[in-house]
Amino acid sequence: MLASIGGYLLIFLARVSDVSLSTVRTLMIVRGKGVIAGCIGFCEVIIYITALNKVVNSLDNPLNLLAYALGFATGNVVGSFIEEKLAIGLMTVQVITEREDLCLLIRNMNFGVTVLEGKGKEGPKKVLIVSLPRKDLDSLLKVIEENDNSAFVTVMDTRATKGGYFRRTIKEK
């Protein structure tokens, strides 16, 4: 009985691990980090085949399949959590606001801001474009919310940047 529980646990944990690694590997590919993605993929496939082998060799045991499926589902949740905590990469935030001083507040946070003049349905607007490390997104959104809760904000992944204030500040750190 204890050996069976250990087998189910092995299958479950292997699937949680390989699916979590798959999520991180995909993130690395999207971020242009192919070598890291390859190393993660190597580990991922070894774990995957180990779990799959355990299940395929015991197809008469539905609890193995249940452990496999639960591990897959849990791995998706864990992988998403890990991806969020790693916060790898860059973001571009576009803020449409009427507040003149919001740009200065964001610049005081040491973020580069490009300001464009815009025209909305209700008159002139400022369009602020901010590039920043993903890990700093929450602090930026908090400042925007505290100072202009009517601002229209869009957040986009940024694959790469070249030049500008953002690049200089990264090199200085």
Automatic annotation (TrEMBL):
| Membrane-crossing residue ranges in chain numbering | 34-53, 65-82
Output this protein's name.
UPF0316 protein TSYNT_5374
Coiled coil: which residue ranges?
none
The record's family statement is: Belongs to the UPF0316 family.
Please verify whether the record's keywords include Membrane: yes
- Topology of this chain in the membrane: Multi-pass membrane protein
| Main localization, broad class | membrane
Q: Which UniProt keywords apply?
A: Cell membrane, Membrane, Transmembrane, Transmembrane helix
- Start and end of every DUF5698 domain? 23-79
Cite the DUF2179 domain residue spans from the record: 111-163
